[in-house]
Every structure is written in C-alpha cells, then in structure tokens.
Amino acid sequence: MYGPSTQRTRSQPAGNRSLGAAAAEKISRRRLMGAAALLPLAISERAAGAPAAPGELSPARRYTLSVNTEIMFPPEMPRAERIEQIAAQGMKAFSFWAVDEQEEKAMLAAQKRTGLACGSIAGSGSLGWTTGLTDPDHHQVYLDTVARNCEVAARFGAPNVIIFVGKVQVDIPWEKQYRQIIAGLRKAGEIAEKHAVYLCLEPLNPIHAPEMSVLSAREGFEIIAEVDHPHVKLDFDIYHLQLGEGNLINNLKLGLEKGWIQFVEIGDVPGRKEPGTGEINYANIFRTLREAGYSGFVGMEHGTTTTSKDAMETVRQLADAN
How many structural domains are present in the chain? Predict the structure, then answer.
C-alpha cells in the first residue's frame, strides 16, 4: 500500500533533539505520505456511507468494553481485587499488562469466580520499547518473549496480545529496520496463530515516545498491510493517535474497512483520563464503531478524574450513546 520510503530517516536519537525538531520531522514525513493517503481515505468515506441523520438511532453496539486493570485503580490494590471490582460494576471484560506467576494464579481464580472475559494483555515486554525487531541481534529473544506471552493470553482466553516493535536504531538504515520489522512480524504471526491469538501492533505518539519506530495509524497500516498475516493486526489506541496524528474517524473507518484493526483502546486528551473529560468527541467515535459493525473489545486503558466506579459508568453511558 505505502512503500517504506514514506517512513522516517534519522541520523541521531530523537530523545537528544528538541521537541520542535522532532515535530518538524514528523510533519515532513506526513507531507510525503499525504498524497498516498488521499485516495484511500476518499474511497473509505464513500464506502462507509453517511452518518445517522439527526434524531435517527445508530445500530446497537456489538463491541465489549474491557476495563484495563493498570491505571484506573490504586497501585497497591492486587489485580485480582481489581477484577472483582470490575465485575461488581457490571462490566464484562478486563485487560492487563503483565504479572508474575503468583499473581497470575490469583487473577485466573478471580476470572473464574466472576466469569469475566479477558480482552487483552501486553506481549512484547521491555524489548518492545528498546531493541524490539529493529535490532537484528535481539530478534530471537523478542520472538521468545512474544511466545511466552501468547501462552499467558491463551490461559486467560485473551484474543489480543499488544506489541511494540522497538525504537529506531540510529546506527542502522531505516530501510533495513523496516524490512526487519516486516520479517519479524511474519514469524511472530506464526507463533500467535498456534495459540489462536492476535498480535496487535500499537502505534505510540511522538510527544511521549518520539524514539519509537511506529508513531501513527498510517505507519501501522502500512506495516500490517505488508506483513499480510491473519494474526498480525493493529491496536488503534485513540489516546496516542489523537496526540500524534488526529484524523481519528477517517483512519478508524479505513482500518476497519480494510480489516487491519483488531483492537481499539480509548482514553481522552489531555491526561489520558476517561472519555468525556477532554477534547475527543467520543460519542462520535462510539457511533462510528457501531455503524462499522465492530464486534471486538474496546480497551479502557485510561485513568480517572474521580473514581474507577465513576469512570466505568461514564464510559458505559458514552458507549451506548446515540
């Protein structure tokens, strides 16, 4: 779809430059990608059809809210207790990042008691933030990490394993890093398929993680399209994508139409708090998901301005809003 020439070229670590320089580089890259982006967006908008007319009800939701246990609750609270609280609020699913063996047992017991589904877990460990697949010397360790976390996901019945593919390596040409990402994700996809889970590549944002290799939906779509593996898809994290790219609804429609998006995560800007507290029009985001017939999990990976109970109720109401 988009060639790797549209991706970044860097000669020094992004973390050593000013924010303005990093932002300028992103803008330059996006300008190069702009022409290629216009045609598929126009096609997507025509295919998606017009939104519901004023007063007309959009379709009922088919997606399931999955409450992330990590940043909405007090850090000292055991995750098993967090699962119990999520169930007590009438929610149907939870997500988490990573746990040790002892806490995993307690969480599995809590999941069995409550009957909650598990929407997602984290899958690439610390390597996803560092060497990932961009450094060829660490590919096998990365794949081994993904394999272990696919096993954890299978034990929880979680279909989605969230991954990052590493930071940009300043001493390796970007073209080579890009090819390594593609090849590595194809191998990782074979691992995921064996465990009947999906690897979900999550683009981050250039404000908080400018050194990372995937920082927009467009970059993520390019990779997913080229990898072309049924078990390697995109995690459309709306918080990150609003900070770094915007154009949320057009990209969401395009990714869903093309089958690139497997998982959606929410959080408002600024602050990564519950939807409705910031600048993102979440009523329209949820309407778009309903009209597209999205039936996967929506991960509530955000904090709260009040309490976890209030945040869950706020999102539940928004998710069903017309």
Answer: 1
Residue 180 located in a structural domain: yes
The separation between the first and the last C-alpha atoms of the chain, rounded to the nearest angstrom, is: 34
- Residue numbers of the domain that contains 143: 63-319
Query: Cα–Cα distance between 217 and 254 in angstroms, integer?
Result: 10
Q: What is the pLDDT of residue 58?
A: 74
d(CA 103, CA 80): 8
Give the phi and the psi of residue 35 in degrees, each rounded to 5.
-60, -40
Residue 74: cis peptide before it, omega within 30 degrees of 0: no
The span from the CA of 116 to the CA of 90, in Å, is 10
Taking only the tens place, the pLDDT of each residue in 40-87 is 443 344 334 455 555 556 799 999 999 999 999 999 999 999 999 999
Nearest to residue 122, comparing CAs of 81, 90, 83, 152? Answer: 152
| Structure confidence at residue 187 as a pLDDT band (50, 70, 90) | very high
Residue 301 domain-assigned (yes or no): yes
Range picked from 4-8, 41-45, 205-209 for highest mean pLDDT: 205-209
Average pLDDT, the chain: 87
Cα(182)–Cα(179) distance, integer angstroms: 5
- β-strand pairing of 232-237 with 198-201: parallel
pLDDT at 320: 86
Quote the pLDDT of residue 215.
Answer: 98
Question: Does residue 40 form part of some domain?
Answer: no
The dihedral through the CA atoms of 40, 210, 198, 222 has a sign that is positive
pLDDT confidence of residue 52 = 53
CATH number at residue 121: 3.20.20.150
The secondary element (H helix, E strand) that includes residue 262 is strand 261-266
Quote helix, strand, coil % in the chain, to nearest 5. Answer: 50, 10, 40
Which residues pair with residue 29 across a beta bridge? none
